[in-house]
Amino acid sequence: MTKSTIEAPIPGTFYRSPSPQEPVFKNEGDAVAVGDTVGLIEVMKSFTPVIAETAGTLVAFHVENEDAVMAGQPLYDLEA
Question: In this protein, which residues make up the domain named Lipoyl-binding (predicted)?
Fold first, then answer.
């Protein structure tokens, strides 16, 4: 199995769910398919989805919900 680290495409605030009242997109241990939304990055009230480009199992998050992230910062590990 190959583990890869997915990085933030842009700087902003990372969110694991679409809103505080809704469940998270993915949890550790969940299967991830190509095209799945794993989180959102918000910049000045504009939300950019973090879309999986490869399939696998989400192993671990490197950031917490509502953490500020920089472009290139590790977000999560995916095992294929």
Answer: 1-79
Phi, psi dihedrals of residue 7, rounded to the nearest 5°? -105, 160
Give 66's contacts (C-beta < 8 A, 6+ positions apart): 13, 14, 15
Domain total of the chain:
1
Asked whether the whole model's pTM tops 0.90, one would answer yes
Distance of CA 47 to the CA centre of its chain: 13
∠ CA(5), CA(68), CA(47), 5° rounding? 85
- pLDDT digit string, tens, across residues 31-50: 999 999 999 999 999 999 99
